[in-house]
């Protein structure tokens, strides 16, 4: 049986990806690997704490356990995917790549919203990368939902979601599409009246991309 591993930087998203995997990856064994200090360490000292080495160790754990694909569920670490794929010899997929592709298809004026600068910059870079592959130039706005990360870190999910929703709505009037940079933000966008402006999140689009990479039929 095929096995894949998700590499997470926060435990809060593990149930989300477990549910999506059950829906979109039938017959696939899923392993969840976690280092919940990586985002904080990248913020405090981007060049230190040996984040690349820690990701490599987790990747080698996945390979040793028989995983054929490793998936980064966090945008903050997406820049490490290419080097790690070369090291491990298996595909290392970025959960937000499919979302970035969808955003580029949806319009040229794009806003990316995050709760952390360490996630905002890599997501913006990924959007520009995917746009460049299509030979297009984006009018890209980067916006932080100030206070949202502190709220959710203290256990106040309601305040987090409210702040994220407000940040999203502030961008919908001026852009063709809004991108949420973190998988953990996905729930905050549910049910928002955006006037028809799409708000894209990475978890489901990313897991569907994983299914495509494994040549599994995607579900509607």
Automatic annotation (TrEMBL):
Q: Which residues form a coiled coil?
A: none
Family from the record: Belongs to the HyuE racemase family.
Which superkingdom, per the lineage?
Bacteria
| Stated name of the protein | Asp/Glu/hydantoin racemase
| One Gene Ontology MF term | amino-acid racemase activity
Stored InterPro entries: Asp/Glu/hydantoin_racemase (IPR015942), Iso_Racemase_Enz_sf (IPR053714)
State the organism named in the record: Jiangella ureilytica
